[in-house]
Amino acid sequence: MERLSGMTSDVRLEVEHLTKQFGSTVVLDDVSLAVRRGQIHGLIGQNGAGKSTLVKVLAGIHADHGGRVLVDGAPVALRTPRESRREGIAVIHQEFSLVPSMSVAENLVLGQEAGRVAYSAGATRRAAEDVVAAAGIDVGVPLATPVRELGPALMQRIEIAKALGQRASVLVMDEPTARLSEREREWLFTTMRRLSDEGVGIVFISHFLEEVRQVTDWLSVLRGGVVVRSAPTAGLPVGEMAELMLGEELRSTLGAHASRADDGHRVVLEAARARVGSRLRGVDCQLRQGEILGVAGLVGSGRTRLARLLTGVDAADEGVVTLRGARLAGGGPRGAVGQGVALVPEDRKHQGLSLRSPVGDNLVLMALQRRLGGPLAVPRSRVDGLARQLVEELEVHPARTDLPAGALSGGNQQKVLLGKALASRPDVLVVDQPTAGVDVGTKAQIHRLLHAEAEAGAALAVVTDDLEELYALADRLLVMHRGTVLWRGLPAQLPRDELLTMMATGVVPSHLAGAA
């Protein structure tokens, strides 16, 4: 990229030759880009391309990197989030950083309390009013409202107001529209344009490519930690964006295994016209014996809500979920496990594992009811024996059942999480992000385990951001967009670049409409 430092006075943020690695894995490789005063700069890339790592560098979370960051032409040291804010960089992360138990006012001033001798409700309210005034945004609710009572759109407003209340010259937004309705997105885009008119430089990260074209002036594409294109957005059609994100090595139209899809396979689990709030709207879905259904969609498409519905975590407001032709009984996830339906959730640390409990206890927890007859009827020696067997089969390292699960690496925690579900010998297995944060070897092992479950006759659904993984596992595909099923069919019918474009735009190509 052309060097900009010292050449132009309107560059708000510049990243020069940025490198970052975790162990031997290079996540950012000589990344350079510039965001000008009043520019909305789009940043796109597949999951794992390095976008979130770059955001964390700018936020002062990853200080141990090569290269340098400049704000208004001056090099800055971003060693902590506080230093990042002090240099005029405000970051809105993909996951909300608000504290649910605190009020809107308390959240707005959180992190800005330096020098305050004691907590004062009045002083906090006045400070929050100053933040809102500086941001120029109506947060939409009384400042005394507890954040836990708010919906995603209002929480997003508060995140933006908090960031802008810092009088930032650079605003970094990571997937800010993922949880917003159409009307709320338009409000956000109007706010972004107003801020850019006032001279703020904005980095806008989104998987929705049509949004990127609509709101950004300039676009940088990350692939494998490298900036592969940086150019005016107007010159990049959506199809070309998708190709740049994917790369030639990912453009094969076939998966890496022989498809097991067979219309003669029995439907084991089915959702019919299912609605869950605004997250799922009239969804139909079938899981067949001996097959893996790959569920594709962007953040906010409803894919995780579908996984939770199919496994009894969430109940349908309308429609029905049936197992072997009968309504899936109540009782939540525990009741579903008793009927042979198991979920491997996306968030292993907060929803999947008890990190303080031993590996062995985590592994056998779901097996107690269905496989071992209940916790009161099973000798401890039998439970321990099953735990040791699973550790060996899953190749968990270190191979100890007495260690706390939190002491394991992320990849080994993921093995335990999957093993916990497999230990119950489920007839239906729903897996959300099966290999997030694992190395190549562990990924291959998890793929083998999932294929083996399908070969043994289980019905599986796999939700994944990884397109390579999606095609390597899926016998059928289901594509979701904003709470609805957009398309369903066989992987061989849908090239990967067309899938990516479909997920981003919500438009099914005319030649595929008949296969939906």
TrEMBL record:
Name the keywords, alphabetized.
Answer: ATP-binding, Nucleotide-binding, Repeat, Transport
MF term (GO), any: ATP binding
Task: Please list the residue ranges annotated as the ABC transporter domain.
Answer: 13-507
One Pfam family this sequence matches: ABC_tran
PROSITE patterns xref list: ABC_TRANSPORTER_1 (PS00211), ABC_TRANSPORTER_2 (PS50893)
Q: Which domain of life is it from?
A: Bacteria
Q: What is this protein called?
A: Ribose transport system ATP-binding protein/rhamnose transport system ATP-binding protein
State the organism named in the record: Motilibacter rhizosphaerae
List the lineage, top down: Bacteria, Bacillati, Actinomycetota, Actinomycetes, Motilibacterales
